[in-house]
Amino acid sequence: xxxxxxxxxxxxxxxxxxxxxxxxxxxxxxxxxxxxxxxxxxxxxxxxxxxxxxxxxxxxxxxxxxxxxxxxxxxxxxxxxxxxxxxxxxxxxxxxxxxxxxxxxxxxxxxxxxxxxxxxxxxxxxxxxxxxxxxxxxxxxxxxxxxxxxxxxxxxxxxxxxxxxxxxxxxxxxxxxxxxxxxxxxxxxxxxxxxxxxxxxxxxxxxxxxxxxx
Amino acid sequence: xxxxxxxxxxxxxxxxxxxxxxxxxxxxxxxxxxxxxxxxxxxxxxxxxxxxxxxxxxxxxxxxxxxxxxxxxxxxxxxxxxxxxxxxxxxxxxxxxxxxxxxxxxxxxxxxxxxxxxxxxxxxxxxxxxxxxxxxxxxxxxxxxxxxxxxxxxxxxxxxxxxxxxxxxxxxxxxxxxxxxxxxxxxxxxxxxxxxxxxxxxxxxxxxxxxxxx
Lengths: 214, 214
Description:
Number of helices of chain A: 8
Oligomer: homodimer
Strand order of the largest sheet of chain A: 3-2-4-1-5-6-7
Largest interface: A-B, 36 and 36 residues
Structural class of chain A: alpha/beta
């Protein structure tokens, strides 16, 4: 019984995700799903990405959080169109929630629509949101062993962005060990270390987006 | 249909949790459930706690992870009895998993049995594991706004341990703002800032355990 219900939910989610992709393909909007642990730096990352893509790519943002509108306020303050979804206890976003808010965004003025998913390295990996690109943010303070512990999400994504690299001098974090861990799970995924503070990696990252946006 | 299934699962979980509490009460073992984001420092915290409780409280550990036995190897190397549960994609531990491994631990030699739950600030809050004490670890690099975003878990716990305080000089983290955020959700919970690196707060923390263990 339990398994059947779960399967039905996932099937319905996949159908809605396919519908979202159709809608956005017609409007030439690329949808990006950003996943990460709580506090990995998703919102700061979005704000930095907006800076370096300015004049080239027009952004829109869907903020997913269990509660609060802390993040959407920051994004709105940067002049980026944004809607907030509060899951009220839900541990991930689902496609129907994304479709519901598409009408609240000026899609004709957006090239790259970014979903900041709920802070969760596990449940978010199960739900297709209709995205064209998926990335996971993994921060230096979380440690270089994270890929071993959460293989599902690291296997799923188009790029792994290692954030907060400016903290490396103060942590036991080896980029070499981290890359080795990723390669046991995903041989080909692009790994991009960045720091919002020093700007490290941001140019490489923006180039990656320009190249991979459909 | 969906809701009914979820309710049945939670009821079965609560019954098993009550049974675990009975078993452990008879053996005078206190069960502690540690919850946190991925990379908040749960394993390091357990190893530091073991050091400062040495000779006073005998520990045992149940390690919960989606995959790998990285953490249980570290705990075993410190001479602490440990069992590993791999959830293989599951986003939290459930009471039946805890009961299943009790037989693999030398309960007669353990005063404080510690569960290191899966790294997840949302789903772990829903499942009673038969614990007597619940704490959440929240690391400085995750930011001082986390309580607003994950209110459920911060409302549930007996203590909030703020880890990695040695990183405060390098981060935009205000302990005052963090405490304010916690107080909007949980007026009474004890907040204990600690650093495994400098030892800050470890004595206060150990005293809290001695005082609150049943």
